[in-house]
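Project standup — Tuesday

K.O.: blocked on the structure for the chain from last sprint. Re-posting the sequence here as requested.
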Amino acid sequence: MRLLVSGGTVFASRFTAEYFATRGHEVFVINRNSRPQSPGVKLINCDRHALGDVLKPYSFDAVLDITAYTHDDVSALSEALGEFGVYIMVSSSAVYPQTLPQPFNEAQPCGKNIYWGDYGLNKIEAERYLLEKVPNSYIIRPPYLYGKMNNLYREAFVFDCAERNRPFYIPKDGKMPLQFFDIEDMCKFIEILIKSRPHQRIFNVGNSQTVDICEWVRLCYGVLDKKPELIYVNGRISQRNYFPFLDYAYVLDVSKQNELMSDTKPLVLGLRESYDWYKDNKEQVRIKPLMDYIDEHLKDLS
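H.V.: unblocked you, prediction finished:
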């Protein structure tokens, strides 16, 4: 296939481009060439908001819009395209209001989520434009993405704590559920959408099973054959100061995904792959000062 991937330089978009390129497809990426490009891809060096007629001579079997955040992002790219088969946009679970009953399903209405704010609202507008203007389009809504090439300081933070034999500070009782989706599984599902063209156009994606915070931390430490000393943090301290996820529990219903792709990567395997990548690519991760905050404000809890 001939594919166009938006972005292609960090995490989800870079992994997607490499996933399809290593499988023998012709992969074009569109970015401003501000970072090194992946081997095996073809660069279209341009800003997605200033495309003009650059894309008109091309035809693509699929457009994989991994980096769209707003209505303008989608309109700029979709209107600049020539011929293409299908347009797949990666959206977010942030489109579901926190007030809806859970697990969230694709039939529920979208709306403002107080935890995600403008990020969720912008994704809603991007989705709405795509559904109205591009008939041959699909939207996927993942929970927390993780895995190889993850440049966000999430599992990498726990790996760092494990490497340094630090105790781990757990928000409240540690029972808040977390739902994940490995980046390779996301690419596999995109591949299924391209090939099968199902009637349904919006899909929640993710692992069927959630884990709580304590389980997730233990799995991350376990990748390094270690067991964490858990210290529980109560009170009014914002957990984002010392923990990489929001204080917001949500779960997606992924039964529609499972009808097309029933098997997903076990979390322990995905975390092991993530660590194998991270230990050789630490400079690519956006480190946050979580340990500094812990050392300054939480040490007395030890």
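K.O.: great, moving the ticket to review. The radius of gyration is 20 Å. The chain has a mean pLDDT of 97.
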